[in-house]
Amino acid sequence: MAFGDYPKEYNPAVHGPYDPARYYGKPDTPFSQLKLNEIGSWFGRRSKTPSAVAGAFSRAWWRWQHKYVQPKKVGMAPFYQLLVGSMVFFYAINYGRIKHHKNYKYH
Amino acid sequence: MFSQSSLVIIKLLWSKLSKFLTMIFRPFIQPRFNKQFLFVPNFILAHTSTCPASKPKCGASAGKGGTTSIKKIDFKRAEKSAPCRFGFIPEEWFQFFHSKTGVTGPYIFGLVFVNYLVSKEIYVLEHEYYSGLSYVVILYFISKKMAPGIGASLDKEVDAEIAEWEKGRADQMKVFETTIKDAKDAQWRAEGQKILIEAKKENVAMQLEAVYRERAMRLYQMVKGRLDYHVKKRRTENKLHQKWMIAWILENVHKSITADFQKQALNQAIKDLALAASRVK
User: Fold this and answer.
1) Residues of A with CB below 8 A from B88's CB?
2) Does A22 map to a domain?
3) How confident is the model at residue B99 (pLDDT cuts 50, 70, 90)?
């Protein structure tokens, strides 16, 4: 499968127009409805190839986009969310450096 | 731009050229490719085996007018983005807490979490924090002041663009509808033409009939005239014969009356008269 191709299981005659936020693979219980002891087996069933992982990230990104960026009249919410998200991410990766700037020695 | 036949020729030449190029660039091309309709080299736009262009199209299996089996688009573009509190925290996170802790739950959780991060100095309040805080305050005041105005103008632009697309579509529909109406009109007129031609045929038939009758009458007149001529000729000849016969008879009679006979006739007449006169008395 080359970059940018549709998923193998997508069939326009059956599924209609392509929705990038939708998982077209074998139907499985959604992650939010899993019980804790089923999580391991659920992960076992999924495909863990790099393209599948990339697909998962892509679908999550598109789901967020459908909800906050693609509507007709969009407020500042997606910008603020991206801002906060990137702030958290960059703080996390710089934490090794930042922790030396602590103000107190004992907490 | 291209006529139908030149397009066919170009496609033919292109298929030949593409076959030649396939031979040369075999290692760089995907193993399976389908019909090409774009004027680009194969190894750039080769369809892979998973490409849906090779699969049956939407509604291809539906047949004519089978709307039931064509998958309709079941997601619609939302009007506004999902609701958020504080500008960026999604509403669902607040609902998540609501059943267990009520309305104040998420705020308490947020406060406690932030307190933990700050007190354990996992979140260090260094100079980045203070600059970030200033940014937040400035952003808040800017959004308070200018957001409604900017929002309204942007909304107007979005609505204008949507209206433009809709108008284009509606205009196209109108064009199609007028075309349909005109076509139906033309059909109706064509039927009128049929009636017109019937009327013209009737007209011509009547004219033919009139001419036929005129000629028939003329024929009758001609024949009658000739017969009349013969009759008149006969009668005239008869009259002439009679006249001449009478004249000839009279002439002969007058010739046969001699002077003697005349004298005898006179005497006889006088005798008869005397007889008649004696009888009367």
Assistant:
1) 77, 80-81, 83-84
2) yes
3) confident
